[in-house]
Amino acid sequence: MKQIAKGAEAELLEFEFEGKAAILKRRVPKKYRLEQLDKKLRETRTKKEAKVLFAAKMAGIRCPLIYNINLKKSEIVLEKLEGIQLRELLSSKSQKINSALISAGKNLGKLHFENICHGDLTTANILHLKNGEIAIIDFGISDFSSSLEDKATDLLVFKKSTNENQFDIFLQGYAEGNKTANQVIRQLAEIEKRGRYVTRAQAA
């Protein structure tokens, strides 16, 4: 096994699972939490991630398949997707950028229409696969929510990782994938309005 990433909550290891390239996602224990509470939290979050991944797959989203899950160890074995991060594509001069942004937006729209919020949808968590498809990864803090605020926050997170033109193209796809897109976009404007108000208040 080779460690390829380590975050605040989990570590990712690359290995071969039953003859297929795979990723082991392991939620690591936190020493600052009570042992029983920590174990319960890690199990619960692992179970939630698996449920969200399954729901996303049922919504038609390209995301990693689950090969295996071990709740006692808080581990999920996931399909290893081959591609580059959208972040990398956006920094290139590729002619595929616009179509990739539209596809990414459409995928988030589909998720939101099914009341699934990603929680950390940056351009680093969207892959442009070798076959041209767009995939969404890292559902570690995703959840089920019908809240316009939660959905608008997903948009805000993505917006902060793009420029204005890229985000506008992304929203075109988002509107295609989500019949309630206008409501979410209006809520995004409200969140940004509150942010500007707080910034001005702090500067005063």
Throw out a few tags for this protein.
alpha+beta, 204 residues
- Using only C-alpha atoms, the radius of gyration works out to 18 Å
Helix content: 40-55%
Largest sheet, in brief, is: 5 strands, antiparallel
DSSP strand tally: 10
Record the strand order, biggest sheet: 1-2-3-5-4
The coarse silhouette is globular
Structure commentary:
The termini are far apart. A 5-stranded antiparallel beta sheet has the order 1-2-3-5-4, covered by helices on one side. 47% of the residues lie in helices and 22% in strands. The radius of gyration is 18 Å and the shape is globular. It contains 6 helices and 10 strands; from the N terminus they run βββαβββααββββααα. A hairpin with a 4-residue loop joins β8 and β9. The protein is an alpha+beta fold and 204 residues long. The model is unreliable at 197-204 (pLDDT under 50).
